[in-house]
Amino acid sequence: MATGNTALRVTELDFISIKENLKEFLRSQSTFSDYDFEGSGMSVLLDVLAYNTYYNSFYLNMVANEAFLDTAQVRQNILSHAKHINYVPMSRRGAFANVNVKVTPSTSENQTVQYIVMDRYTQLLGTDIDGVNHPFVTINANAAGKVAGSFNFEGIRIKQGQVITQQYPVLANNSSRRFQIPSANIDTSTITVTVLESSSNNYTEEYKLSEDLTVVEANSRVFFLEEDDSLNYTLYFGDNVIGKRPANGNIVQVTYLDTVGSAANSITRFTFSESVGGLFSDNVIVTTVSASYGGTDKETEEQIRFRAPQHYVTQNRAVTKNDYEAIITRGFNNIDSVSIWGGDENDPPVFGKVYMSLKTKGLYALSNLEKESIKNKLILERNVLTVIPEIVDPDYTFVMISGKVVYNPTLTSKTENQLIQIVRNAVNDYNEKELNKFNSTFRKARLQKYIEACDPSITGSDIDVLLQKQITLQIEKATNYQVRFNAPISKSSFYNRLYSFPQIHVYDLQNVLREVLFEEIPNSFTGVDYIGVLNPGRNFSGTPTVTITGDGEGATATAKVVNGRISRIDIVNKGQGYTRATVTIEGGGGTEATAFAKFEARYGVLRTYYYKPNGEKVIVNEKAGTVDHLSGLVTIDSLYTIGTDINDFYAEGILTVNVAPEEEIILPLRNRILAIDTNNPQSIQIQMVPET
């Protein structure tokens, strides 16, 4: 806008720019000449005008932001936008656990009862590592008969939460049939709603949460749910056109669990806080099958902004990858990351299937029951009939960090141990922000940037990276293992080699039990990999001798003769150390046959070994497996083990295989998750080196 010869710059809305803009306007006239003197009355008025304009611009900007889901900051406004696209934010979810219960009646308790029922909502207490008790309840009724003087309940599923029941009379003035649940900690997945006929008539009807409006009819007994402006949940009913409407005088009874969410995860100690079957409490032993998991907190504003549009686009059907992801994250709030790929993208391709891998927030593996529940309740009712969903476990590849970090002692008063902890925190920060999800990409340079920026005294870093796979061994059973890194890995040398940990217990050729490790034979990839026939020759009546000569040693091969000609040459021993080789074919009565050798640049050989007390290295198995450096496949052949050494880093029966990656950038792939195991001290081994 222009006034006289002066243009007001209306797009400059910070306080200083507004005031300078007003001053510029006043310079174009002479009525108020004291505008530019600090402390003058006119200068004070300019401040007031500038502040007022700034406040108004800020307010209007906030109003505009709150009008859209992407930019709204106030939760009530985010809820309002989400409601328009039929999205109900997820509440807290109580943690699950699985336990076995053994009840042995004491001499003072009933000895004649032969059958008892553990009722639904029987109460337990779970005690966390800090000694804090959290209420748990059984989510189903369970029965057991007496066997050998005890009642044994196997696989009891319990859920964290306190059972609460609310009753709401349906009054004539409540025409909307809306009832607020007075709890900020409700687990909405546990809500059960029944409608009683009246206070004098106990006839009840159960109402279910409506999940698909297209199947709701006028007499459908359903209820609806929303998070209201008070940030609590409100349930409401239909209008006899979309869903049945409770009549005046009815009583709505709502039962649910009040939960602490994620605070009750990883609990392993449980005790009953009431008698089992209403009879027994003296000798009740609870054995934990699986620690509590799956507890989550209420959906955050950022999660609502991300998930609500996906839910709207999905429209309750599963066709695209985004549809599957939206349905799963919506229906299973404990899922931290999802990877979806079609059967045509699988290795090997399997047409007619869609594959999905789900990473939980607690890093536990989904049970078969949970996988079936996701497939049957969330997917099969919504996906294309001819497409079969398949859930596979995440494939964890752990990143191991070691090396030196250089610092300038004159720029810090911190000790080396303090600096090491700061560096470890930076690595953990990188792991949390850049890795540990399906679409994560490892970049060594990016990791070093985190390390070198974590403290002003750090001037450089020289780190090495290893990839680690953890495999569960089959004890006392000959088993072939395929360890897939799915990335090119470096060829082993005397300084950079594939290795395993911990020692495993195997028998050697003399049937003596040994504690051995795996390694790739250094330079074993320099053997002869293939011999091709250039000229099959003629007139061979017997098998000729194949001789391989070159700068390596140990390579041998045999020829296969068909109809007087050499059809192929098979490798018997690849040997090692070859950079050049000549193949000679002699004998067998034929002539003119020639062949050439190709070297094994791609494959290496595994062996097992142990050390004697005097330090002598003893090889147990020279051919324990192979290494494909290009694809990153490590194969262990027919391993029969008694067990592993007990150690402080891994559970018994876990063998780790550690390799150096060929590249410094590792891209995401299907169900692979790249992560730094921050709970394992071996994962981050840093040495602080002062500048000299």
Describe the structure.
This protein has 692 residues and is of the alpha+beta class. It contains eight helices and 41 strands. Strands 3, 4, 5, 6, 7, 8, 16 and 17 form an eight-stranded antiparallel β-sheet that branches. Strands 9-15-11-12-13-14-10 form a seven-stranded mixed β-sheet, with no helix packed on it. It has a seven-stranded antiparallel β-sheet with strand order 24-36-35-34-27-26-37, with no helix packed on it. The protein is globular, with a radius of gyration of 36 Å. The model is unreliable at 1-5 (pLDDT under 50).
List the helices and strands and how they pair.
Blueprint: E1 2-3, E2 6-7, H1 15-26, H2 41-66, H3 75-84, E3 96-103, E4 115-118, E5 123-127, E6 133-138, E7 142-147, E8 150-160, E9 162-169, E10 178-181, E11 186-198, E12 201-209, E13 222-227, E14 233-237, E15 251-258, E16 269-272, E17 284-293, H4 301-314, H5 321-331, E18 335-342, E19 353-360, H6 368-379, E20 388-392, E21 395-407, H7 416-434, E22 442-443, H8 444-452, E23 458-472, E24 479-484, E25 499-501, E26 504-507, E27 513-520, E28 528-535, E29 545-550, E30 556-562, E31 565-573, E32 581-586, E33 594-599, E34 603-611, E35 617-628, E36 633-639, E37 643-644, E38 654-659, E39 665-666, E40 672-675, E41 684-690
Parallel strand pairs: 12-13, 19-20, 21-40, 21-41
Antiparallel strand pairs: 1-2, 3-8, 3-17, 4-7, 5-6, 5-16, 6-8, 7-8, 9-15, 10-14, 11-12, 11-15, 13-14, 18-19, 21-23, 22-39, 23-38, 24-36, 25-38, 26-27, 26-37, 27-34, 28-33, 29-30, 29-32, 30-31, 34-35, 35-36
Helix pairs in contact: 1-2, 3-4, 4-5, 7-8
